[in-house]
Amino acid sequence: MMNIKQLKILKALINTGSYTKTASLLNYTQSNISQQINQLEVELQNELFIYSNKQLVQTEFLSQILPLVNDYISTHDQILNVSKNGSNNRKLKIAAPESLVTTGLSDLIKNFLEKYPETDIDLYNNTCSYNQTLLSNGEVDIAFVVNKEIQNKYINKYVLCSEEIVIVAHREAPDSLEGLLKNKRYNHFVINEKDSTYRKMFEEFASENKLEIAKKTELWSIDTIKTFLLDNMGFSVLPLRTVKDEIRMNNLKIIGEYNDFPLFYSFALTKKKNWENTLINLFLQETKEFIFKKRNIIK
């Protein structure tokens, strides 16, 4: 019957994409890895991998069951952790975007760990879209995202606060988007990854309004984006919370006001399960209390 050893071999094979690398990683023989995967495929009556262009590729069936596999492994590890360390040693896996980590979430985590020092927290910093994928796949316990809405019947969503998305540039930039796009220096869209929810929103807005963006630069962090803007290069579209200090100090400014932009929200997301996780509920409660007390931080 299917067992945790087989599922951990399966997960390692997904991560390495190679039977040889998986065998080396887990200190098994390659034939043993192949045998365990074959046994799984026989029991599940479905292929888990196929070869395409000499690459090991997940089947659609494996993609469908992967969230359940991750949940099974996570639950198994939690049970072992409690058995080994007692109920006082607990771990939370949290995924969050940079825009929230640097504007309040890190303080929340710090306060939580001071209040509950027996807890370990693993923090994953990714785009909002990828954070939701990690949650759906069972790889994190809580995902924080900034988005217009969440449409997934398998996810619990908790609205934390509204998020104003603004067009922002150097204080010397033209006051309107129209004027900005006519200026060679400023018609340069400096933004984060393609997966960014507010980047997608603005690109849809630009397409619908037939705005001509002359140049686009993709950067890896909001701090780096702000460095470009402070050096008087281009414009960006960011959550207001991430540029409040620079605007207050008159180093950057908001370009126009666009009521056509949809309203965004910060969400905390968890997976719907048939059992309660006390630690997750405790962190969510602390999150709500923290926001209530620190509205000037998370707003």
Rg for CA atoms = 23 Å
Count helical runs: 11
Task: Bin the strand percentage.
Answer: 15-25%
**Secondary structure tally: strands:** 12
Taking the alpha carbons of the first and last residues, their distance comes to: 50 Å
Structural class: alpha/beta
Ranges where pLDDT stays below 50 over 5 or more residues in a row are none
Gross morphology: globular
Largest sheet, in brief, is: 5 strands, mixed
Mean pLDDT: 88
Helix content: 40-55%
Element-by-element helix/strand order: HHHEEHEHEHEEEHEHEHEHEEH
Q: What does this protein look like?
A:
By secondary structure, the protein is an alpha/beta fold. Helix content is 45%, strand content 22%. β1 (49-52) and β2 (55-58) form a beta hairpin. The longest helix is centred in the first third of the chain and has 26 residues, at 60-85. The radius of gyration is 23 Å and the shape is globular.
Could you write a compact summary of the structure shown?
By secondary structure, the chain is an alpha/beta fold.
List strands and helices in order, with pairings.
Layout: H1 4-16, H2 19-26, H3 30-44, E1 49-52, E2 55-58, H4 60-85, E3 90-96, H5 98-115, E4 119-125, H6 128-136, E5 142-147, E6 155-163, E7 165-170, H7 177-181, E8 188-191, H8 197-208, E9 215-218, H9 222-230, E10 235-239, H10 244-248, E11 252-254, E12 264-271, H11 278-293
Parallel strand pairs: 3-4, 3-5, 8-9
Antiparallel strand pairs: 1-2, 5-12, 6-12, 7-10, 7-11
Helix pairs in contact: 1-2, 1-4, 2-3
